[in-house]
Amino acid sequence: MTELVFASSPASKDAHKNLYHFSETSYIITGEELMESILGFRGDLSRLHIASTWTIMVGLAMWKAKPQMGDMFLLLRNAGIKAEELAPFRASEVSDIFPWLYYGRRFDVLRRICHSAKANAEKYLKEKDTRVHCHLVAEDTPQIIASSI
User: What is the pLDDT of residues 54-93, one digit of tens each?
Assistant: First the structure.
């Protein structure tokens, strides 16, 4: 097998399939166990695609199963968001940041988070020759809105 897709949900799988048209056998639905799937994968693979929703993608970018807001702020600061822009979100959840970025058209920041997730996935993947592409999927509409490609 040369390409495989880890999708965090059926909606993420559908969003990826609508754009890339891979066969059904290329998709594995991981749920929230994306990091475990990456760590446990063994096989001959040239490219791994990861299609995931916001919270799981952020967890991958920080390599934490349950990302906290302190970590989220650090990730966003590294992605180019100023501290004063994050002040209104101090008492928020990680999931509350996504609409602000998406509807605020901060796609540059979303792409940087995909790149961070890609770097971590490649770092922890046992097959070091495998290239990873991360695709962020909006939960309300099954489409890819940012990517590491």
Answer: 999 999 999 998 888 888 999 999 999 998 999 899 889 9
Query: Which two three-digit tokens encode residue 55?
Result: 């919270």
Domain count, the chain: 1
**Cβ contacts of 99 within 8 Å, gap of 6 or more:** none
The domain in which residue 134 lies consists of: 3-67+109-139
Q: Is residue 133 within a helix (H) or strand (E), and if so which, with residue range? A: strand 131-137
Give, for 149, the enclosing helix (H) or strand (E): none
Q: Return the percentage of the chain with pLDDT > 90, whole number.
A: 71
Pairwise CA distance, residues 10 & 68, whole Å = 25
